[in-house]
Amino acid sequence: MEHQSDRIRDRAVPFAALVGGNIALALGPWLVRLSDSGPVSAGFWRIALAMPLLVLFARMSGEKLGHMSRATLLAVLGGGLLFGLDVASWHLGIGDTRLANAVLFGNSGSIILMVWSFVVLRRLPMGREWPAIMAALAGSAILLGRSLEISHANLVGDLFCLLAGLLYAGYLLILQDARKALGSWSLLALAGLASAPVLLGLALALGEPVWPTDWTPLLVLAFSSQIVGQGLLVYALRHFPPLVIGIGLLTQPAVGALVGWLVFDEVLLPLDMVGVVLVASALVLARVVTPRVRS
Questions:
Q1: What are the structural domain ranges in the chain?
Q2: Cβ(99)–Cβ(256) under 8 Å?
Q3: Cβ of 133: how many Cβ atoms within 10 Å?
Q4: Which of 4, 199, 253, 255 is the most exposed place for a label (fewest CB within 10 A)?
Q5: What three-state secondary structure class fits 241?
Q6: Cα separation of 139 and 271, whole Å?
Q7: What pTM, to 2 d.p., does this model score?
Q8: What is d(CA 242, CA 178) in angstroms, rounded to the nearest whole number?
Q9: What is the pLDDT of residues 201-225, one digit of tens each?
Q10: In sequence order, what are the residues at sequence separation of 6 or more whose Cβ sits closer than 8 angstroms to the Cβ of residue 251?
Q11: CB 42 within 8 A of CB 91
């Protein structure tokens, strides 16, 4: 009986980490809207405020921050640049579109990586890859069309979030080999070190207010997104296959839609729900069928 209890606990803890990590990340757009700095400035503080803890966790885990090859260093710098642009684009989109759309399109990197794999491997989609692509295209068309019906600003917000998904896919591809040489916390810390100046420079160029009057949303954003969300998912990824990770990802649009409805009166009509389900299904399928590719 005790052995069975231990086995249930061994499964429950990683599952709780998977769900908790996705919920923490899904609350990010809400906190960006609550911030009284600019959206790109909020991205800078999200990275900068989390840096000390990321470095501390890397050292506590025995990871070495300063020992890497030139190729790894260049990959980290390039990845950090793309990550900074990803955060900036996503945060700009969050302010204009609905939270459910922002979360879905912001996570579109999985689908983009799947399509990129076809280009690299020089082959057409097969099997379950076709339904993933068709669902992504159909769902995106529905959501983009609905945003255009609401306002042009909503459509622009969607496009910024889609651009963020594209940039995040590039970030993952560039850091593909660096992940072997660096631990998870070290990679997050070094990528953050490279992306923070990018975000600060963009915020200043856009004329955004950088210094907030209320630090609470930014402190919670940095802790929930960079520490709790990323940390829990790093832990959970070791315990589940891609299908379960993909299904866990569906927590994010559900939380985004709920917060959008309760806090910002964002109502999803039945057609919106069809679009959300199609894109969410595509995200799950993309995580299952995407082969590992080398850039």
A1: 19-289
A2: yes
A3: 18
A4: 4
A5: coil
A6: 10
A7: 0.85
A8: 21
A9: 999 999 999 999 999 999 999 999 8
A10: 19, 22, 23, 26
A11: yes
